[in-house]
Design goal:
Elements lengths: L1 E2 L9 E14 L2 E5 L4 E4 L5 E16 L2 H6 L4 H10 L3 H14 L4 H20 L5 H12 L7 H8 L3 H12 L3 H19 L4 H7 L5 H12 L3 H5 L2
Antiparallel strand pairs: 1-5, 2-3, 2-4, 2-5
Helix pairs in contact: 2-4, 3-4, 9-10
Length: 232
């Protein structure tokens, strides 16, 4: 077990835990962080890590205040994006991919990805979300590996199928199929980094029809091939 000193970062940052596990202590709270968890820390916010599982590895993305001011973004907008946006984890991985690529387009691409993350979250959070949409989020996250029909979703939310069809993209910022595939890829991330399962076993565990479908979807959503991601 290793305890880091109490410290803070001058800039706000987003962290994605890839491997290992630790407790994070802040002034008024304590969190258990597991592989695949993503979290935000404000600039100047003191925290301490107690690493319990080794090896431990995470991706840290620090955000310069000048960038936030330039585009009229508040730290809380970033914080909300991390909490509310399913795409946050995938966009962070795409940003890291760009930082590794390091060509003439990487810096601009990273900025575009960050603005997409934050602006989409602001747009989504400013909408008046009906109770059925919030309930649907819970249902889909709980039953991410079930084959749910539109009629079943209608019965579970007590909302007409046409209403769900008409407004799904508005409240989820993607199609139903895209959302469900993102949930499956989200489940696969910690398995790739922290289990001895083969990619074939992981693809089946996460509800894909075959390994090829899983690899294509993982690459499309995260920017990485699963095998390369496992090596990070």
């Amino acid at each position: 077990m290793y305890s880091s000193p109490l410290h803070y970062h001058e800039n706000p940052h987003i962290s994605l835990l890839l491997q290992g596990g630790h407790s994070e202590k802040r002034i008024n709270a304590e969190f258990e962080r597991l592989p695949g968890d993503i979290f935000f820390c404000h600039g100047g916010e003191a925290h301490q890590f107690i690493t319990k599982t080794f090896p431990s590895k995470n991706l840290n993305l620090e955000i310069d205040y000048q960038f936030l001011h330039q585009y009229g973004i508040d730290e809380n907008n970033v914080c909300d994006a991390v909490k509310e946006n399913l795409n946050t984890k995938f966009l962070i991985l795409k940003m890291y991919k760009e930082s590794v690529t390091q060509d003439d387009f990487s810096e601009t691409s990273i900025q575009v990805l960050m603005l997409s993350l934050i602006k989409d979250s602001i747009k989504f959070n400013n909408k008046s979300k009906p109770k059925w949409a919030l309930l649907l989020v819970e249902i889909l996250n709980d039953r991410w590996n079930d084959h749910l029909t539109l009629n079943e979703l209608s019965n579970l939310t007590a909302v007409h199928p046409v209403t769900i069809s008409k407004y799904f993209t508005k409240y989820f910022t993607c199609t139903f199929g895209e959302y469900m595939r993102r949930l499956k890829i989200n489940r696969s991330i910690s398995l790739i980094k922290n289990s001895g399962l083969s990619l074939t076993e992981i693809s089946l565990e996460c509800g894909f029809t075959d390994q090829s479908h899983f690899i294509r979807t993982f690459k499309e959503i995260t920017g990485w091939l699963p095998g390369k991601f496992r090596q990070l």
